[in-house]
Amino acid sequence: MGYGGVVRVSTGIRELDDALEGGVPRGSWVAITGEPGTGKSIMCMHFAWAGLNAGDPVVYVTTEAEFRDVMRQARMFGMDFEKFKTYDIASRAEPGETPNIVVIDIFGLLKIARQLSESQEEQGEEVARRRRFAVLDIETLTAAIHEAYRILGVLREEKARTPYRHVRLIIDSISAFWADKPAMARKYSYELKIATHRENVTAYLVSQYAMTTKSTFGFGLEHIADGVLHLWMDDVESSKEVRRYMIIKKMRMTNHARTAFKLEIIPGKGVVLEKLR
Ligand SMILES: Nc1ncnc2c1ncn2[C@@H]1O[C@H](COP(=O)(O)OP(=O)(O)OP(=O)(O)O)[C@@H](O)[C@H]1O
Ligand SMILES: [Mg+2]
Question: How many angstroms is it from 43 CA to the middle of ligand 1?
Answer without folding.
Answer: 10
